[in-house]
Amino acid sequence: MLRSQKLLLSLSAALGLALGSAPASALTVTAADLPNYTPSVDLGDVLVTGIGGPFAHKTVGGFDMVGILGGWEGGEIDLSVPEGILFEFDTAQIVTELQIGALFAALEEDDLYDEQALIEVTFADNTTASYVLAVTGGTSAAWSGLGTVSNVSPATTGNGAVWSLANPFGSAAVTSLTLSPIGPDVPENFRNNDYSFVSLSTVVVPEPGTLAMMGFGLTGLAIFGRRRSVI
User: What is the DSSP string of 88-133?
Assistant: First the structure.
């Protein structure tokens, strides 16, 4: 094999690997990343802030979760202030999975009703939207957004009541996400519609310019190869 051909193959392989790995800039945040009694934490790619107070951890059914200190239920996001957890991303992200816990079915853990969680997002085009995750049974729930919802731990007494939302906003990238409580707070001060954060996973799609440069590189290699073949 000619030296020029070897060079062409090597460069093609390198660009191929780059293209193949381009979309794989992933981010995962878990409850463990949010320190107890801290008002906010900068994790580099995302700034996470407690609304209504600092972070507070709790263990439910063997799952580590985080909410807000104080309120009607410490370590959860509730309507006392109201509370919340805000995620602000440095670069627009596609959410691949969101897990929340301590969202119980009716008559479990002193909850009068099937609990609900409010998820608010700002998209990359600066539009906003609100979605609701509503428990409908011990292992079933309804999600008003895209993607799918599945039960990780039953929403019954003694368990974690953990829910997983896969691709909850489809392929739309978001710049911020807020976990919020949803009202009304009836009866007042009661522990309804409170829940905790478990984990969040996202990916960053490469900038269009990055993919364009890679494409130009492959085009250049093709032209180079054709020129070598006619010499």
Answer: EEEEEEEEEEEEEE--PPTTSTT-SS--EEEEEEEETTS-EEEEEE
